[in-house]
Amino acid sequence: MKIAYLNLLLSRASVIRIVLLLAVSACITFAGCHSNEKAGGPAADTAAVSGEYSPALTFAPNVPPARSSAAPKKVIVDIDVIEKVMKLADGVDYTFWTFGGKVPGPFIRVQEGDEVELHLNNNANNKMPHNIDLHAVNGPGGGAEATMTVPGHSSVFRFRALNPGLFVYHCATAPVGMHIANGMYGLILVTPRGGLSYADREFYIMQGEFYTKGKNGEPGLQPFDMDKAIKEQPEYVVFNGSVNSTTGANALQAKVGDRVRIYAGNAGPNLVSSFHVIGQVFDKVYMEGGSQVNQNVATMLIPAGGAEIVEFTCKEPGTYNIVDHSIFRAFNQGALAQLVVTGPADKKLYSGKLADEFYNAPAGDDAGKKDKAAIDPPAPEPSFADRFKDGHTLFESNCSGCHQATGLGLPGSFPPLAKSDFLMSRQDKGVGILLHGINNEPITVNGKHFQGVMPQLSLTDDQIASILTYVRNSWGNKSDAVKASDVKKLRGQ
Asked: Which domain holds residue 292?
C-alpha cells in the first residue's frame, strides 16, 4: 500500500511539472511572459527605469529602428500639433489637423516597461484646442484628459507602457470624430521585452477617411462635411493621408527574399478595413496588434481605431497592390498603396501566362451550326454615334474601375487614357491591347512610366470596336471610328 501510494504521488508530481512546462511555453507569444514580484523580478509597472532618451520619430511609410537595450527607460516624446492646408488628391486641397505636420502622425516606438513622458505642443497659429488619446495607455481617456491643450500651450503627462502591442493614437477633443477625420491619428508600438523577430523591411501604413463637401475629385480647397461623416459616406478612403501617397515613385521597395513586416492601422473614424496585399499571403498576423498570432491569412479585418501587424517573405518580383478589399475604396476612393519587389523570378513558384489560345465552346444547342457565320451576312456597321454611345456604356462597366470615368487613371497604377500618346499612336488603334491584354510589361504614357498589367477581356469584336471608338474620341482624344471588321482581322492574325 505504501509503495502504491508513493507511486501515485510521484505520478501527480510529474503531471504538475508537465502542466507548468506547458504554461510557460504557452506564454511565449508576441508579448512574452510578464515577470512579477513572485517570480523573482519586478513587475513592469514598478520596475525602476534606467536613463532617459528621446526616440526617433518617423513618418509613414517609415518605421524607426528598435532599441537595443531591453531595460526600461524614461522615453521623452515631443509632438507638435499643426493645422495646415495640404494635398488630398490631384487638384484637391484640404485643411488637415495633424500630429507633427503630416498624416498620419509620427510612428512612436517604445518598449514594454518604459516610462513615457509625452509633451503635446499646440502651435500658436492653430485655431482649435487639441489633445491625444493613446490606446497603449492605462489611465483616464488614454491621456486625453491630461493633454487638453489650447493654441500656444504645451501639456505634459507620463504613462507606463505595460502592454506590448501595436496601438492607435488620435485626438479626442470634441467633436472627436471631426478631429480624427481631419487627420489627427497615428500608431505607437510597444515592443515586448525580448524584442520582435528580425525583418528586412518594416513599413507604416494607416487608413483614414475624409468627408469633403465636394464630390471625389472636385478640385479646390474642400471643407469638412459633418453630414457625410455622420452618415458614414466618405468621398475619400486613403492610405497615409492622401490619394496615391504610396504608389508609383513613392511605392514601398523590397527585394526577393526580404522578410517584410507591415504595421497597419485604421483610424476610421467609421469604416472597418479589409487589409489585403494582392499576390501575397501573410504567414504571420498579430491579430488586432496584440499577442494572438494567426497564420496563413490573405485578408484581415482592422476595426476603426485598431491595428494589426502582418509579416510575409517576398518570393517573386513585381508590383503588388496593397488595398482595402472593400474594393471600390481602393480603385475609386484612394485606399491603394504599392510594394515593388525586385530580384530574380522563380518560374517554379509562379509561371506567369503560359498560353493565350482561342477557346471553342463545347457542342450544345448550337451543335451543327459551326458554319452559321459563313452563311449569314455580317451585321451592318453601326453609325459613329451608336458606336460611341455603346462604347460609353461598355467602358463604364469594364474599364472605368481602373482608368476612372474621367480617363485619368490612377498615377503609378493605371495609365491615363485621356490624351494618351501610347494609345493614340498605335497602328492597331489599341485593338491588340483589348484582345491580348498586357502581361507585366513596362510602358510609357505621356512621359510617365508604368508596369503595364491588364487582363485579357472576354469581349466580342463589336464590343471592342465600340469601346475603342469611345475612348479614342473622349477626354481630348480624336480619331475615326473603330470597326468590328478591324478587330476581326487582327484577332485572326
From this structure: 43-346
Looking at residue 8, its pLDDT comes to: 41
Q: Which residue has the higher pLDDT, 432 or 114?
A: 114
- The dihedral built from the CA positions of residue 33, 38, 39 and 44, taken in this order, carries a sign that is positive
Sorted by sequence, the CB contacts under 8 Å of residue 393 that are 6+ apart come out as none
Strand partners, 320: 339
- Grid cell listed for 101: 505636420
pLDDT category at 45 given cuts 50, 70, 90 is low
Cβ count near 92 (within 10 Å): 21
Q: Which residues contact 270 (CB under 8 A, 6 or more apart)?
A: 177, 209, 229, 232, 234, 304
CA distance readout (Å), 467 to 416, 423, 457, 461, 474: 15, 13, 12, 10, 11
* One-letter amino acid of 41: G
Per-residue pLDDT tens digits for 477-491: 999 999 999 888 888
Distance between CA 246 and CA 102 in Å, rounded? Answer: 14
Q: pLDDT, tens digit, for every residue of 223-274?
A: 999 999 999 999 999 999 999 999 999 999 999 999 999 999 999 999 999 9
Its pTM stands at 0.74
Residues 342 and 384 in one domain: no
The answer on 341 and 247 residing in a single domain is yes
The reply to whether 248 and 135 lie within a common domain is: yes
Identify whether 384 is part of a domain.
yes
| Sign of the alpha-carbon dihedral angle for 67, 71, 73, 77 | positive
CA torsion through residues 45, 186, 205, 299, sign: positive
